[in-house]
Request: fold
Amino acid sequence: MTASGDPIPLILLTGFLGSGKTTLLNALLRDPAMTGTAVLINEVGEIGIDHSLVVGASDEILLLEGGCLCCQPKGGVAEGISRLLDLPAPPSRIVIETSGAANPVPILETISQHPLAAKAFQFPCVVTVVDCLFGRSTLQNHIEARFQVSAADILVLGKADIASQEDRLAIENIIKKENATGKSVDAKFEMLPNGFIELLKEGTQASAARVLPELEDGGVHGETEFVTAGASFHGRLTAEAVQRWLDRVLESYGGNILRIKGILQLEEFDQPAILQSVRDIVHPLQLLNQQTQETDRNSIVAIGWDMHPELLQEEIDNLVDQASGNTGQS
Reply:
């Protein structure tokens, strides 16, 4: 419970791979109204990176490992919530950021069965980030994305400021068919949508009355075959070598590569550099202000679909081999 004795608000932040969940989370945590927030982060794959990219006002960040929360035994998310509730000073609210491949429905069902549900914390307000640039193809090809939209109390239209009017209208039409009651808001890069904090409060109050979408035949992921590959390794790379590697991977596998993200030690910079790509769009390198890992350690993850995981891991290993002073993965 909060200091006032009320149940702690819970926010389930979801959205497909590369939609902008962590960017929204960072903007949210920078808002003074979110002081005292604790965060649970779940990532697909064995190498965790997103928790290192979260900055701002969070008092507690826990990384939930072991694959998508929707596929985990029920102890995963429940244990994470329990750990936060047991802190000497309980958080004022909890944000759970799911992996981009997660179906939120089983997660919501698990949370609702927690022994302290409704007493210590509220039923989650589901916030789904929808990528206006790639949303149409994502919603057509991945049932997980459709479950994310249909379960939402609030739909954040990410990259709305750089998407075409045609793409924006198409996304709005799809959302209306999948979720007629969710509230949609636009998001600009690294900025909270107008009135978003107030909308969160309203969404938390209304979320318990929502009817969850039904899973067909108990399915979680549909037919999507996600594959992940990653490495954590020592040494330093050059920006040119990373760019050549990235160009080759995207040229070779095209639309099968959904997401690449990494924290890399580059010869050109004193601080770690953040590498991010969504499909074939590569974001400019950004420097990581806080030091969240060893000064010579690199971490990188690639997520693809409908491809052999060995091929993806081989590409990651090729990058690892180019690191100067590398003493092997660890």
Observations:
- The first helix runs from residue 21 to 29.
- Confidence is low (pLDDT under 50) at residues 45-59, 64-74.
